[in-house]
Design a protein that fits this description.
- Two copies of one chain form a homodimer.
- Chain A is 36% helix and 21% strand.
- By secondary structure, chain A is an alpha+beta fold.
- Chain A has two domains: 284 residues, Zn peptidases (Aminopeptidase, 3-Layer(aba) Sandwich), CATH 3.40.630; 119 residues, Alpha-Beta Plaits, CATH 3.30.70.360.
- In chain A, helix 1 crosses helix 4 and helix 3 packs parallel to helix 4.
- The first copy, chain A, is globular and about 80 Å long.
- At the A-B interface, strand 10, helix 7, helix 8, helix 11 and strand 11 of A face strand 10, helix 7, helix 8, helix 11 and strand 11 of B.
- Strand 11 of chain A pairs antiparallel with strand 11 of chain B, so a sheet runs across the interface.
Amino acid sequence: MNNKIKSYLQENREAHLHELFDLLAIPSISALPDHKEDVSKAANWVAESLKKIGMENVTIHPTKGHPVVYGDWLHAEGKPTVLIYGHYDVQPVDPLHLWDSPPFAPEIRDEKLYARGASDDKGQTFMHIKALEAILQSEETLPLNFKFCIEGEEEVGSPNLPAFVEENKELLAADVIVISDTSMMERGKPTICYGVRGLAGLQIDVKGSNSDLHSGLYGGGVHNPINALVELLASFHNENGEVTVEGFYDQVLPLTDEEKQAYQDLHFDEEQQRKELGVPALYGEKGYSYLERTWVRPTLDINGIYGGFQGDGIKTVIPAEAHAKITCRLVPNQDPEIIVDQLKAHIEKNKPKGVDISIALFDKGAPYVTPFDHPAIQAAGRAYEAVYQVPTSYTRGGGSLPIISTLDQVLHAPIVLMGFGLPTENFHAPNEHFHLENFDKGMETLCTYWFELEKSL
Amino acid sequence: MNNKIKSYLQENREAHLHELFDLLAIPSISALPDHKEDVSKAANWVAESLKKIGMENVTIHPTKGHPVVYGDWLHAEGKPTVLIYGHYDVQPVDPLHLWDSPPFAPEIRDEKLYARGASDDKGQTFMHIKALEAILQSEETLPLNFKFCIEGEEEVGSPNLPAFVEENKELLAADVIVISDTSMMERGKPTICYGVRGLAGLQIDVKGSNSDLHSGLYGGGVHNPINALVELLASFHNENGEVTVEGFYDQVLPLTDEEKQAYQDLHFDEEQQRKELGVPALYGEKGYSYLERTWVRPTLDINGIYGGFQGDGIKTVIPAEAHAKITCRLVPNQDPEIIVDQLKAHIEKNKPKGVDISIALFDKGAPYVTPFDHPAIQAAGRAYEAVYQVPTSYTRGGGSLPIISTLDQVLHAPIVLMGFGLPTENFHAPNEHFHLENFDKGMETLCTYWFELEKSL
């Protein structure tokens, strides 16, 4: 990357942030039907933004859910093609009262940009657009061919993207796929994530009597749906923090000695992590380090539970119903379909008496790993090092990007995950934010990468 | 009871129901601070109603919480005094969408009066007032002396009544205490409840990290507060439905053979009960019948649980907090103070790792039993039989009336529980209602009782 590009980014910083504010102000929450218009508005915004920098064939592809925005620039004759994937939808914002500033009124405090989507993933998607703008404005051309595929359903498990990718595999064909939707290890420590966990989950609905009951009149006579639910849920783990679902670990690839060593070399400070999270102790499957547990070991988490009285004080009720949402993070080579069957079998086997149980499945995503010595990944590492001036860490990520396995299986291209977020930036939580240091350095890194990649492939 | 009184009740039925509608329309939910004014309004309504029928010394006694309404009529010289206890406060109404008609817009459908408090306890308290009105209007006098003590905090565990009773024990002194706040066994089966269960409970608050976390990035690294909570809650019972809290059953009076036989003689139809409740099976402590489990065995129920995402679909969050409310129904001679200490010890012993646990205590009530051959109870049985024309059943009740042990311990008078509700009337649940058949027969029974009682004491 030359100084002209760098100067362009510096000179246009305020204008870029101003533009990003507009995108962040759109409450494009894909999970909530009431926000359908907003999600559509965000798709239009992204399409306009692509056109403005000179992308061609910009199209908003309708799906059964929210649309996919496509755009390309294919004038680097004979050069490889990069597909940039991102998403313009965001997570719900509840509990709203815990936000220090409104989630859709972006605000910079202490060089951090606060807004829902600031980091996950509007901010990171926007950086890709502006990095190409910088090169085009400075050089009037790009070193590689580029395609954008920006979807609006990532936060609800990308239910319609597999069909879209399958139907448009010629349109999306690429030599490398680049995604910026993950985090760096920590501040100042650039990181390439070469594998992510998959996802499988379901909702458990417990139904007892026809109606809420008085716990004095009926207590002891019927099974309380909440009591029944907690018994069932507690059966998913043993005292070592292991998941007790039969067969759950059967397909898990054991960690190699080389990988184990590589993780130890990261000198991850568990005590520092504990302090930052504010917990009395870190916790998880016995016999594994924190990084191993969050990167290469599968989990089962209860993401939501509700039933009975939630107000202040006491209401002596036996509720008619109780509910829980559980998801598993999966690692290679666990198959989400098999895991869901195992979860169902576990529930059937541990079904509490005296109540009815029903389940509803959530969308699934397979886990994924790319060899970390792949040239596209090593070029990314060099780009980070050129900008951040420290060695790049190669990690695996805990989060699931359900689309990754689809992109892998349909497009057969290596996937490079270049994350510019930080683990402390409250993805999916109140007060999501994005460190502007990584907004600036991230765009420089991307510009550098495209030239490095051109030399490597 | 003479025909003049009966005619008075019949002739004034519409007017009485109309009056009761006004009381039921006041949303006097004692648990919710927003309804403080409504609770106060209901207290005034009761006081005015007592004055109107000729009660004297009517006073609204302020407490630290909601007020107690007192009134008396003490002109039956040389005759015993009856203290009538009731409550004008009601339970919360959530979930509101399950009500077929608004909870505070009373409506008669199919000879049942639908409204929050219709049965528990505004309806039953109102019957006492109107029964005395009927006698006074017909006879210009009463066969006994009467005192009313109508409180506004029963549904939140009567936190201020013990102090009130202690400070006013001269004012409230009586030879018999009568309470109508329980149920008949079933329709057409008049029932005197000669014992009730006590109550002890607490809220468990589990706190994990500072903020909600992304379950992909952190899952496996920290203990999920919901996972931790369900593990703790599941530890309260074993597979036989027994409570595992150490010492929990130590003070429980075993059922006598005589009582066991008396319950068998009731020929309670468990299958019918199962069908009415709409559950696949009844459930509870192994080795006991349904009636034994709900009347004379203690329980531990989770009345509410909440944490994480409760919306539609999926949100892959590890919440920062999770909460549960638990209460135990206690039987003689369990001491609520000891039980609370045992619960706290159980929580301490089974405390999950990696999270912080805090607890908040709820108000307590001791269990209570009166000998069922006491003359005041036998007179009540005769009054029921005279009106309902079937034998009276003598039962024990599952519900707790926390005030009973206070009244017993401070006033040293036998307590007669004459319930006119039905177990199917959705106390504490949506669509609470009151069968008007028992409104009519109940008032006749009360009028009959006062004359029977005068002859017995």
